[in-house]
Amino acid sequence: MANANTTSTQFPANLPVFRGEHYDRLCAQMKVIFRFQDVLEIVSDGVEDLAAEANEAQRTLHREQKKKDGKGLFIIHQCVDSNIFEKIIEEETAKGAWDTLKKIYGGDEKLKKARGETISDLQKVEKVLRALTANFDYIVVAIEESKVLSDLKLEELQASLEAHEMRLKQRTSEKKVDPALQAKFTKKGKEEGSKWNKGKEKWKKKKNSVDAASKNSKNLDDSNKHSKNSKKKVNMKDVQCYCCEKFGHYARNCSENKDSNQDGAQLARSDSDDAMLMATTKMSEDKANVWYLDTGCSNHMTGNKYWFINLDESITRAIRFADNSQVNSEGIGSQLLEKNYSVKMHDKELKLFDAKDKLILKAPLSNNKTFQISINMIDQQCLVTTLNEDHNWIWHHRYGHLNFRGLNLLNLKKMVHDLPHIKTPKQLCKECCIAKSARKAFKHDLPMKSSQKLQLIHSDVCGPLEVQSMGGNYYFLTFIDEFTRYVWIYMIEKKSEVFTRFKKFKLQVERESECSIKKLRTDGGGEYTSNEFAKFCEQEGIIHDITAPYTPQHNGIAERKNRSIMNMARSMLKGKGMPNRFWAEAAATSVYIINRCPTKKLLDKTPYEAWTGAKPSVGHFKVFGSLCFRHVPEQLRRKRQDGQSRDVQFDESKGWNWSGKSVHNDVASSSVRTVFEETVEMPIEVNNLPDQPIRRSTRGRVEPARINDYERFLDHAVGQDGELLEEAMLAEFEPINLNQAMNYSNWLEAMKEEIHAIEKNKTWYLVDKTDKKAIDVKWIYKLKLRPNGEIAKCKARLVARGFLQKAGIDFNEVYAPVARLETIRIVVAIAAYNGWKMHQLDVKSAFLNGPLEEEVYVKQPPGFEVKGQEQKVYRLRKALYGLKQAPRAWNKRIDGFLIKIGFTKCVSEHGVYVKGLSKLDHIILCLYVDDLLITGANEKEIVKFKTSLMQEFEMYDLGNLSYFLGMEFKHTKKDVFLHQKKYAEDILNRFKMVNCNTAITPMETGSKLSKSSTDELVDTTLYKQIIGSLRYLCNTRPDISHSVGLVSRFMEQPRLCHLIAAKRIMRYIKGTIDHGILMPSQKSTKGEISGHGYSNSDRGGDQDDKKSTVGYLFMLGGALICWSSKKQEIVALSSCEAEYVAASYAACQTFWIEMLLEELMINNAVKVKLLVDNKSAIDLANHPISHGRSKHIERRYHFLRDQVNREKLELEYCKSEIQLADILTKPLKKARIDELKKLIWE
Asked: pTM surpassing 0.90?
């Protein structure tokens, strides 16, 4: 448990940041944080004023409350962005700030209800009752009169309303109403109309009104007839009646028409009457084959209810026709979509065209002035297959392709709940045949050695897998309890994580089972045999049983279980055509399923029941990788976003995990409503039907309009995408071994290129084996990336196993100098100041050019052995990568060539070469192994030099300097900007800090980190990796140098507070990822090049040994060229001594810079002065007086006094406000950091 001194660093690494949206979510998160920090009561109620007569205990309590109030206010400030902060900046208490946020963003009660605040059950019930239609009026009255609404549950109300709706449907179905398509009834007999009437008097009134309307219509028709006959006499023999289709009379005079008018159905009038114009047809006619084309319909209607896709029979409407007669519709169904078809009527013919002006059909004008078409409706028949084993195959896929014998056993012995009866099909599962293919297992029937839980645990690591998982892992670790056969699985990135995972596993299972682990059986892998693993097992009393080497049968339970997991995972991935990057999800799902599968040793139980004592339920199982549609709550929905998202589910537990376009900001799976689309590809049984005559349509096939509402995919589209994604992914991974690389042409070509380079340089020749041992070689694969992250090339390197070499026998000297990064910054600053171009070259296979002095043999490279001479070995003429002496051999080779063509090696920096006696022919070369940086005043001389280099060595000319040793160089018209943005992004990605909240400073002001912290220990390897990555980032980021140096002091035993501090630095980098160093030109500085430095020190800042921290930085021509932040080696007794020692460190750096500048032949008169903000330290350096405050200072630190007395160093006093090195000695506030940055780059 952390003590009080470390509480300030115990804040969560990722605090929420409020930007004015989702205030309710912020409240929930902040209350948890307040409660965790023990300030919730203070934030809610505030701090009461202290009474004047308060005693000491009350005063102490008040001080503690004030501290908590400040702590709560600090948390609030950290959790709001800059815009929100301006609104609470005046608040001095946590309660005041929190109430201000609530007042601004909380809103009143009505607004909260409108925006989605939780509504009580009474409000829901009242809302439902008010929203019901008139058909439910009397049931609403009954509910309000008979029940107390405040006690009525929403479920009870729903049940009552559904029962009433069902009764309405039954009553509607009992009515024998003809379909709505019929406008007139042609049934004979007046008595049939009377059964629709509910009162005789009401029927008579309606009948009289209908007869009157018919009479008026008849008079009007007679007058029209008289007027027509006056013009031309019509031959009645040619007149055909529309009703009875007989000749000799009109439809208005038809006796059948008169009967129908008199016997028309009397219907109740509805609130909404829809008018339409319809033709009439007789009941005796086959209405299924006759359709009338009408462009003026207000509704689409049919008399066949089976043509609807969805038909709601609870909704009925009254249809009114042109003669005021009505019929009832039996329901409303799905409506067809507009197809943008066009209709043309010409010369008594109607033609229907599609959107592309393609003729669909044509209909002639009939005798009754309508366009009638006849369509033969053919009953659908299955002409291809029948599928009889539907649910059997579904459960086979749901259960991760478990064999049918196992499924039957689960059901037969009732080992699980909710599993239906399964029949074993005759066909074979294709995915199982492919994924589970293996040699026949050895026969063995060993008795179980354990008699209780955790008596014996088996463990093994599986991997590395070819593809990195979605979580960035390459391995999975399993633990199996022998007694229950229950399996636990952990995904890990490296084998070094096994020990940490085992400790967490032990703590979890021992708490669950109330038993302790007695024995652990593993193989002899290094992940299990480390000293810390052995020490932990010894302390916990665990017997660690390590199997014999190369005998996996001794650890058979773990090996077999890993194989079962991989078989099931492969089957599920292949069954859905998913890319291999989802192997971790598939493996986790497999373990979840295996724990619910039968095993031989447990007889009638599953591992889950044996471990927990309860039978598992499998009713929630879904097919792995099935398509699903997830409801998106309105609070998380953007404008114009659909209410559902299309995802893929992974069945790892009863709650579902989603993999869609956005997987990082997701809603809780238990609160979403999902619809699964479980489609599996199953073996099918083909039943060939007898040959039948086939009627082929003569018109184009038109898809139903409803199909246009959906996004369509082919059955195999998911599989194709999966294969493409897998290929694209595998093309960008680095193979681990030769077998992986040989499967990909790009890596095979890279290996061939490496062998060609070796043979071209005459690096080796084939000889017979000698008494001297030949060194093994191996292939190393690396992707070369551009600054933007794109792949530049695939590089395969043949490396000798140099760690097998022995000093004095296989090699002597190994040292090879390279240019230091601060030297490279100095050269870049000089080039930028003078406006010189900078060139970059890369030597191809540089180490292959270095001749060897020793006798060295290597084995033939795997995969490229010479046929028929496999037993021979290679003797090396020149070095190979991996040999101890290879760097020195290459350095001697290029050093000799450069000196031969006139270059001089700098004495102060052996990685820098200079050529030329004047600025006209001046060339500077920086050498870093096989990377060359060239600059100078004369471009012609540089081109000549590059030509001679490329004639001597095979090189890549990379052009102007843009990316060198992980640093990016951005050139402008005047200046050069150095940064490491790409490298910083890689750090955040590597340590999963991409989505972290930003921090405004690299370290908290006043942070007191100590080795004596009582926080829990963290992973040492992870901590060292973080520190190592951050230290290289300091090459262009002086603002984090002190913070990184401070956290690097705890790498031996890092604790949680130290890891939080390191992660805070990465959070700061996230917010300042574009920062770097500016190298100005002479045009920007407008003066002669000059140099000056700043030296500073704190006083006993280290919490453990009270040593001070030295910080210095140097400027050249307005550019920051070098800096340092390190702990002093002595304990300073005064601030004067601390500053004096710091100035001596800076004096050494000053002397080296002046020597290097002199050798670079830029300006022999450049003197670098040193600025110090402590006058006592300056006086101590200027006056060699030994007194009580300086007599104990070690002699080496008096180098400062010697340089000053010899007038080789000038000390100058500067005010603390402009002391730039202050950023390198202590944690500072944001305002001070910004001020110093501005001074550095002005």
From this structure: no
